[in-house]
Structure formats: C-alpha cells, structure tokens
Amino acid sequence: MEKLVACVQKKPDAVCRLICFPWAGSGTSQLAQWGRLFNDSVEVFCIRLPGRETRLEEPFAKDMTSVVNEITSVLLKELKEKPFAFFGHSFGTYMSFAVALHLKKKYGLEPVHLFMSAAHSPNSAAYLAVKSIVLPDGPNDLLAIMEILGGNFELPHDEDLWRDTALTFKEDAKLFQTCSFEKTEMNIPFSCDITYFCGSDDKIYDAKGWQELTSGDTSFYELPGDHLYLLKPSNESFLIKHMTRSIENGL
C-alpha cells in the first residue's frame, strides 16, 4: 500500500477518500499535500507509479492494464470500505477514468464523484488524435510532444531535473497510448456527477464529451492559469472547497 499510495495525513474517521492521479512526468509531491488542506471528512491518497520517488528502482509500467490492475488490487479493500472520489489531472485523468471503468465493470463500484482536469474526454476525436501521435527519440523533439500532450506550462530549468522529467514523461506518454476505451464500455458507464476543470491560458481541450459518460450532472470550470493552474494557491483553494462540497453533497 505505501509503495503505491502517498498519504501524508491519515484520517481514519474520514467519510470519504479522494484518490488523486498526477500528470505525466510527475510524482506525488504536489497532490499528496492536499491531504493537509482538506477537512477531516476527506482523506487524500495520491497514486505513485513505478519508476519514480520511492519506486525509482522499479521499471516503468508498460501498459495501462497493468497499472489499473495494480491500483485496483491494492486499493480494493479501501474502496469497498467507504465512499471514494477520483481527481485526475491531464494524463492522470485518463488513468483515473481507466481505473473507474474497471471498478464499475468488474466490481460494481463507482466513485461518488469524478473530478477531471485538463484533458480531452476519452470519447472525443481529439483524444484519439493525441493517442495516435508517434513519439520521438530525441530530447528536443520530446519538448514538442510535451507541449502537445501536456499543454502549456513552464519546464524545469535544472538540466538533471529536466532530463529526469523528460524521461518519466516519455514513459508516461507511452503508457497513455496503451489506454483503450471500448465503445461498448462507453455507453453511459457512470451515474455519478462529473466536474471538469481547466486553465484559461492552457490549450483548448475537447471536454464536452464527459456529459455523455454519466447519467449524473456534469459541470465545467475554467480557472486562471496555464496547464498547471491547479498549483496556484488561489486555484488550489477553490478546488479543495469545491471538491469538499461536491463530495459531501454526493454522499
């Protein structure tokens, strides 16, 4: 459990868990800290993939199916134990959606709310177009791919950090390309509410398709900032207040 999940503040009496799925090339350092910002009703878990942080010595995951299976098997007890919600940003949105589909299909489990951020809806033509991009080998070409897949955000200036981020990003991009959402699975798979967030200065995402993926309500919020708008303290505060209210209303 500790290998897969970062939980900086355990809250055994929380009424719901928020499982966070980070963006490509990153780890748990940002989203795990939300555990200190939510009130006692919400416990935050952040997913840590192989090849980074405490899992640095492990090989990167080769396909999304293996990621989904690991997350599901490790967290199944916790997900059955009390209500849960998902938050995914960018690449993390697709990972969270793949896990949610698997949980619904195999175990009949569904989040009380899906919070999606800075990503095309997986039933859109834009999603399929990004998924079919041929990944380059050169580090300079990779920068262009990061902008296509990752939107507009400032990259690290430190050379070693840039190299590590680029390597991890490329492996996550390969992982993203193994996502497969079958049409039969996409026939209104969820009944929970879905909220979609994005940055006003980020590239345009085709997000309206989320409405077709649930029989619940769908809402959309644009916040000031670029691809990593969620790291701005004012936006972070908005997200946490909004998610807390949505989760409590969904229980």
UniProtKB/TrEMBL annotation:
All copies of domain Thioesterase, residue ranges: 17-244
| EC number, UniProt record | 3.1.2.14
Q: Which InterPro entries match?
A: AB_hydrolase_fold (IPR029058), TEII (IPR012223), Thioesterase (IPR001031)
Q: Which Pfam families match?
A: Thioesterase
* Any GO MF annotation of the entry: fatty acyl-[ACP] hydrolase activity
Family from the record: Belongs to the thioesterase family.
Recorded coiled-coil stretches = none
Q: What is this protein called?
A: oleoyl-[acyl-carrier-protein] hydrolase
Query: Per its UniProt record, what Gene3D superfamilies does this chain match?
Result: alpha/beta hydrolase
Q: GO terms for biological process? A: lipid biosynthetic process; monocarboxylic acid metabolic process
Which source organism? Answer: Junco hyemalis
